[in-house]
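Record Superfamily II DNA and RNA helicase, 369 aa.
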Amino acid sequence: MNFKQLNISPELISILTRSGINVPTPIQEKSISPIKDGKDIIAEAATGTGKTLAFLLPLIENINSKSNDIQVLILTPTRELAIQITNEANKLKDAKEINILAAYGGKDISSQLKKLNNNIHLIIATPGRLLDHINRKSIDLSKLKTFVLDEADQMLFMGFKNEVEKILASMPKKKQMLCFSATMDSAVKKLAYRYMKDPIEISIEKEEITLDSIKQEVVETTDRNKRDALCKVLDEDNPFMAIIFCRTKRRVDELETVLHTRNYNCLKLHSDIPQNKRERIMKSFRNADIQFLIATDVAARGLDITGVTHIYNYDIPETVESYIHRIGRTGRAGETGYTCLFIDPKNLRALKEIEETIGFEITRRDVIL
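=>
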């Protein structure tokens, strides 16, 4: 299967080819045609599976550039993800004369309002800023054709359910709705089905996030020795770029303080850090100016960063899906990745659940302190 067979225009294919994208990923293969045909979709696909292009390509094809109406809205939970989708959309803009607006917190609202005087075809937004525009009547969604709810599970987890419903209320009842989520739990399905018409369900097997290219290891330690064990592993591995995951913002803060005092090149990322600062941190990490990014799941959700060679799970994730989601940030695009999980005795049951899901026992790594 190639993009031509999916009826993607030669102009868009040429842009994809220049970016080294020649073959559609499974989520793109399954989603592009039904989206082009105007069908509602509820898709389970994690970051790194190519889901952004899975909806951007057919939606850009369907936009009528001669119309002045806002035709497509992509709603996403975090500013980082909005920026990432906007960058992808802007790369595809050369294929068609369309106007794109990114509406997220921290961006100057007056310049956004000025830009809105031009005819905007596609909006990529976070809930708070979009509602601000709707309340000011500076954004009119009454002629909207397609609504994309991206990272739906995270949207609900972060408490945006009311905002999403208010935004939905400002759109026409008759529209195409696409719901993309890393996990398809009952809360996501309930929200989606309330507003969708006969949606097509698409699920990408977890294995297709391909764990084959990721070497996984476990360090059995105690909570008291965990910091020293982590530092020993970091010194032995000396990774090019690594993300260290912690369970809570407080754990991130504490670990960053410890690693700083031990002279590691690291910065932290969580939702209490102001948006503009988070953007600067992400830029530094993408540019490989920082070796270690210490983050919570929420902050790192949807960040597709190339070049991450190592993932360290300082705290065991709350679910198996989170574990797969975290480690799927390495071993991308044919590269091999490495991930190390630190557990203490109380985590053994959760580890067993992870091993049962992935189908093998994870190799133990000995760390001599």
